[in-house]
Amino acid sequence: MTEQELQQLRRERWRLDGKPIRTIEQARAFLDEVGFCLMYPKRPALLVPTFIGAFVGSEDRLPGWQHAFKDPRAAEATELMVRLLRERTAFEANLFKPYQDRYDRALRQAGFSVTG
Fold first, then answer.
1. What digits encode the pLDDT tens for the residues 58-103?
2. Cβ distance 113 to 46 under 8 Å?
3. 12: which of 22, 33, 54, 91 lies 20 to 30 Å off by Cα?
């Protein structure tokens, strides 16, 4: 598999190819497919799927958690995520600070790329 094919496959699986998730069924299928995702992109970038990216259908101009409050897309994505949490299809975890090194190591062991 070439680098370009890998990037295209990621875009498709992570729903960054212009096919956003809008229904609870699509959201469940996305989580089943990727297994793990962040709600918002992390800076510096982590090579991990994000729920907001899948909801928007793109990785362009996604809000980080610091700016999500003023982005209407984030409010809609959060509503959908809350439904997943309530039905226990998804679970929350704060994977960053103060245990950053441990979580970076765990992500790497799970096959995710951690940069930055």
1. 988 888 777 778 888 889 999 999 999 999 988 887 766 655 566 6
2. yes
3. 91
Q: Say if CB 97 and CB 103 are below 8 A apart.
A: no
The verdict on pTM exceeding 0.85 is no
* Residue 82 domain boundaries: 3-114
Give me the phi and psi of 93, to 5 degrees please. Answer: -155, 135
- Judged by phi (left if over 0) then psi (alpha if -120 to 50, else beta), residue 57 lies in left
Can you tell me the distance from the alpha carbon of 63 to that of 75, in angstroms, rounded to the nearest whole number? Answer: 11
Lookup result for tokens 């996604």: 62
- The pLDDT tens digits for 17-67 are 999 999 999 999 999 999 889 888 887 777 899 999 999 999 888 887 777
Q: Hey, what amino acid is at 47?
A: L
| Structural domains of the chain, count | 1
Find tokens 């809000």 and name the residue: 63
